């Protein structure tokens, strides 16, 4: 697990009632969308331009997200290649008005930097 104690999340969001499934948990696709948004923000900054998601690796849901959870999405750059960037994402749910922190999922998202014709281009390293 990432050390999140002194970090700011890329995203912080509360799921809405429309985001729950028949079990009373949040849809996995909703969580995946939030992770992709956060990873895209970090990848775009690193690439200094447009990026596209090309792969999601090692995705694992370890605990459900509940309706009143406050979701924090953390991101770290794991690798930078010639045209691609790997972003490690971790999602933590804050429950019971912040009294409990629960890691709910993590994954590795790979992005490719895009040029003006939507073709891969070299990553402009920071």
Q: Describe it for me?
A:
The chain is of the alpha+beta class and 126 residues long. The protein has a single domain, classed as Hotdog Thioesterase (Thiol Ester Dehydrase, Chain A, Roll). The chain is 16% helix and 40% strand. The protein is built from one helix and five strands, in the order βαββββ. The chain has one helix at residues 28-47; strands spanning 11-13, 51-61, 70-80, 84-95, 100-113. The protein has a five-stranded antiparallel beta sheet with strand order 1-3-4-5-2, covered by helices on one side. Strand 4 and strand 5 (100-113) form a beta hairpin. The longest helix is centred in the N-terminal third of the chain and has 20 residues, at 28-47. It is elongated and about 45 Å long. The two termini are 26 Å apart. The relative contact order is 0.25. The model has no long low-confidence stretch (mean pLDDT 92). It comes from Allosphingosinicella deserti. Residues 5-117 form the HotDog ACOT-type domain. This is Acyl-CoA thioesterase. Pfam families: 4HBT (PF03061). One of its GO terms (molecular function) is long-chain fatty acyl-CoA hydrolase activity.
């Amino acid at each position: 697990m990432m050390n999140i104690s002194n970090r700011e999340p890329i995203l912080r969001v509360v799921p809405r009632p429309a985001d729950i499934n028949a079990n009373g948990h949040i849809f996995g696709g909703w969580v995946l969308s939030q992770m992709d948004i956060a990873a895209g923000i970090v990848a775009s900054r690193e690439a200094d331009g447009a990026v596209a998601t090309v792969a999601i690796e090692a995705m694992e849901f370890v605990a459900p997200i509940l309706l009143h959870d406050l979701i924090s999405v953390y991101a770290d750059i794991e690798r930078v290649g010639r045209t691609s960037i790997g972003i490690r994402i971790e999602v933590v749910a804050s429950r019971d008005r912040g009294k409990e922190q629960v890691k709910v999922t993590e994954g590795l998202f790979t992005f490719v930097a895009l040029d003006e014709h939507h073709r891969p281009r070299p990553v402009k390293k920071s």
